[in-house]
Amino acid sequence: MWRRGERFYALVVFGVVALEALALGVLVLSFTGRLLGLVGSGAVFQSLLQGLALTALALLVLSAYVLLYHAYTAWREVGEHKASTAWLDRFTEALFAGEPPPPPPWPAPALQALLSLREMLKGEFADTLTEWLRQGLPRWARVLKSRFASKAARLEALDALAQARLPEALPLVLPYLEHPDPVLRLAAARAGARLAQGEGVALLAEALRKAGLPRGALLEVLLLLEDRALPVVERFLVAGEEKERWAALEAIGRLRLHAFVPQVLDFLESPDPELKAAALRALYRLGYPPEGHEEAVLSALLAPEEFLRLHAVRLLPLLGGALARKGLWRALSDPSFYVRKAAAEGLRALDPELLEQAAAAHPDAYGRALAAQVLRGA
């Protein structure tokens, strides 16, 4: 996907296959004519030799091209690495000396060196590098606007914009969230998460809702947004479909967005087991007891989905009290090993004495053994 020259390689392979097909076609016609008595044996023999020669020539061309291509690629990578290192030294010296950068236009290795510096540095140095990188924006914009740019070139441009973190480049990225190629849509989503600022975050949220990305990709974008994720999470919860809401609930827990706790509690009543489990995980990561929704948590202990019972058991210790102890005791009889283990670990955190009783006298043999195992580990 990222290697240049793939189109010419495909053309060479197509030419070789076409020559092989031509040779085989001539041979078929020659042997058919011989069987029908229309062609002499000398002509057939000549066609056979020509076919073998053509096959040998095609294989020679293909082998030579592959070897030369890999040799050229290795040589070019070494040259680009040396050039990038030299430009990196020049930019670093200018940056720390407070001097202007080398005069543009800059070649591709220079821009790559700048992007590497931008990834490593923060604060005032990062702001200075951002100003320098703005001089490379027209080059990336031309690639993204071109109708004839290759997929590899577009991916490189999107990745460069993501590293440069230029907010004004967001309008170049958003149209790619509607691109038919899912790889380009994912790259655009990642770049948009790095670029969006202020009102651009709301524009990104709307574009993501229409992008058709899988829920894992949506979650990745929300995590990349970090402290800018609040408007997107809110939009997903209000107007999103199942995958957007799932990603929002996951992000709430992982980013510790306590402001969304009331919305998370509402999802404990969701009929969708995936959304309900995501809400349970979010509350567990936030350390928030689902008070007032105890019935929903207890009903999850009886759900047919193992993952739903598991997350409900993990959340029970936050509730505390006799209700949580009773639920954990009952969960030690669950048919799932993972649910029983989570129940035993919950009892260890909530009531070690009750865990000792479970290890000694729980009616379920498997639950009793697991309680004893967790007790020994403690």
From TrEMBL:
InterPro entries: ARM-like (IPR011989), ARM-type_fold (IPR016024), PBS_lyase_HEAT (IPR004155). SUPFAM superfamilies: ARM repeat. The chain crosses the membrane at residues 7-31, 51-72. Pfam families: HEAT_2. Keywords: Membrane, Transmembrane, Transmembrane helix. This is HEAT repeat domain-containing protein.
